[in-house]
Design brief:
7-stranded mixed beta sheet; Aconitase, domain 3; 604 residues; 3 domains; 17% strand
């Protein structure tokens, strides 16, 4: 009995001559990758169990989730991976390289008939060249790195034949969105899908990548394309080993076979929340957008860039709309530069970033904010996946046209002038009261002392920049001093009414108001220091948060956790443990006036 493409690839990489659906076999993996997402855990697993890398030539890191290194956790993970790679002779495709699954094809790590695993759930994108790729967890990847193989359950196969000629304006992204409308997210769950038909034979590598990339969203193990002579030739020029492409046997057995009439396909969008909630663009009511994104492993290829440039050339992004473009790999980025596409993008008003996964990996440009409406070429629009706003999925052609129009539309329906959308001028809700009124402002404060005998405590130590997106003062207190060594648990132990006593230059560094407001949030009474950073001093005074300076506190024999009282108008300071008194610098007039009215912006 004959075998499908998946069955033949798995059998060829196992000890068996043939396999069938349901068999569990150990298979050799030709390419073994880990990303900056999950890579550090792979390293941890290897080190924890004392495991070594089986074949460094087949083993690599790809940093595509956060190629800007703008997130501290990703930066740490990337550093861990780089260190491990240096010590074990592994290749790192670093933050300048692009999306790992694309690089596996581009750099010849996979070829028709090859096997590959990655910590990327879209590793099945490799079905675009007739290879068997799978995303796996960090434990699986560590095992593959160590032994060169993993176990796998042979999936049943589905054969879909696309019949007819694609209508004008229907792209590869529309093909997969139309298939999602037919099959949803779970009809083909766990199957290996093979695509056939004249329409498939004519698809370029870029188009195949787009469709294969969203096999995960259909619930499929993989979408495999029988490689054409052009695809085989492309891979032969890059492959790191000789190969023969794999095709299904004529008598292969499929669990499901279906013919699909592509002449009925139309440009589609997936509505926010679910990639399979698809509808024709023309059926969608007028939908204003705030932003547009072109990129991801689904649509960051050269063909996508050219389509985008064709639509944007001589046009401008609609007023109030932000367009973000991210090529899939550095090679695509450079080709865009060579072909003059970058000039077109920039002239149109788009933001272009370095190659990578971008918004759908939550680590680069493409994220949206609460209430924002985005049309995106990504593969997922789950709530929170590309930010806190709403995300529609569409082809590069529809996204580019929508960016120019200001609402979701097709290239043939772009208006001569973007319509003006009226926004309701509703007042924002009043913020929660966080500072007391004049009648509640004491001039004498009393509290337990946190004696921090350090100079130059900067604003990153007080309130780290990774929390700067927080705007609600009620949420800030929990992060106070979380980057100050020895005081990372300060927020948990501090009590309302406590007083911080520190050394020179407290609050040096950035202008962030949160470094003051985090103490207000906790109910800290005051900070007393020998001196303050200039901007910090202004921020504290303007927020009506008491800060005072001193020359010396030797007279009161101050110890950590003592209780002191301070008269902010006279400077008299008393240590209640021993009754000793001293004078510190009191409020000056302008400071007291701002303090009385509850802050710079309070009522005079």
């Amino acid at each position: 009995m004959g075998m499908t493409i998946t069955e033949k690839i798995i059998a060829a990489h196992s000890k068996y001559d043939s396999v069938k659906p349901g068999d569990i076999v150990n298979i050799t993996i030709d390419a073994r990758a880990a990303r900056d997402f999950g890579g550090a855990n792979v390293v941890k697993n290897l080190n924890s169990f004392g495991l070594k890398v089986d074949d460094p030539e087949r083993t690599l890191f790809t940093f595509d989730c956060n190629p800007t290194g703008s997130d501290q956790k990703y930066a740490v993970n990337q550093h861990i991976c780089r260190q491990y790679a240096r010590g074990n002779g592994l290749k790192v495709y670093d933050i300048d390289a692009g999306i790992g699954t694309h690089l596996l094809i581009e750099q010849g790590y996979v070829w028709p008939g090859a096997t590959a695993v990655s910590t990327d759930s879209h590793a099945n994108i490799l079905g675009a060249v007739g290879a068997f790729g799978q995303g796996m967890g960090d434990m699986d990847i560590a095992a593959a790195w160590n032994s060169g193989s993993v176990w796998f359950k042979v999936p049943a196969s589905v054969k879909l034949t696309l019949k007819g000629i694609m209508p004008d304006g229907v792209t590869a992204k529309d093909v997969i969105l139309n298939l999602l409308r037919i099959y949803g997210a779970n009809t083909l769950l766990g199957y290996s899908i093979e695509l056939y038909g004249d329409a498939v034979d004519q698809m370029s590598l870029d188009e195949r990548i787009t469709i294969a990339s969203m096999g995960t969203e259909m619930g499929a193990i993989i979408i495999l394309f029988p490689p054409t002579p052009a695809i085989v030739e492309y891979c032969r020029k890059r492959a790191r080993t000789p190969f023969e492409p794999v095709y299904a046997d004529a008598d292969a057995t499929y669990a499901i076979t279906a013919d699909i009439d592509v002449t009925t396909f139309e440009p589609m969008v997936a509505r926010p929340g679910e990639p399979h909630d698809t509808v024709g663009v023309r059926e969608l009511p007028v939908t204003r957008i705030d932003s547009a994104f072109i990129g991801s492993c689904t649509n960051g290829r050269m063909n996508d860039m050219r389509v985008t440039a064709e639509i944007l050339k001589g046009r401008k992004v609609a007023p109030g709309v932000v367009l973000k473009i991210v090529p899939s790999t550095d090679a695509v980025w450079k080709q865009c530069l060579d072909e003059g596409l970058m000039d077109i993008f920039k002239d149109a008003g788009a933001l272009v970033s370095n190659a990578g996964c971008a918004g759908c990996a939550a680590g680069q440009v493409g994220q949206n904010g609460k209430g924002e409406v985005t049309v995106s070429t990504g593969n997922r629009n789950f709530p929170g996946k590309q930010g806190q706003g709403s995300v529609y999925l569409a082809s590069p052609a529809v996204v580019a046209a929508s960016a120019v129009a200001g609402y979701i539309t097709t290239p043939g329906m772009i208006p001569a002038t973007p319509p003006e959308f009226k926004f309701s001028a509703t007042e924002p809700p009043a913020p929660a009261a966080v500072r007391s009124a004049e009648t509640d402002r004491p001039t004498v404060i009393r509290g337990r002392v946190w004696l921090i005998e350090r100079d130059n405590i900067d604003t990153d130590m007080i309130f780290h920049n990774r929390y700067l997106s927080i705007t609600d003062i009620r949420e800030m207190g929990q992060y106070a001093f979380d980057n100050l060594e020895g005081y990372k648990d300060f927020a948990k132990k501090a009590q309302a009414g406590d007083i911080i006593v520190a050394g020179k230059n407290f609050g040096s560094g950035s202008s962030r108001q949160q470094a003051v407001d985090c103490f207000v949030s906790l109910g800290i009474h005051a900070v007393v220091a020998q001196s303050f950073g200039a901007i910090y001093e202004r921020n504290a005074i303007n927020a009506a948060f008491p800060i005072l300076t001193y020359s010396s506190l030797e007279k009161i024999d101050l110890r950590d956790q003592d209780v002191i009282s301070i008269n902010m108008l006279t400077g008299e300071t008393v240590n209640e443990r021993n009754g000793l008194k001293t004078l510190i610098n009191p409020f000056y007039d302008a400071q007291y006036e701002i303090y009385k009215r509850g802050g710079l912006l309070g009522k005079i």
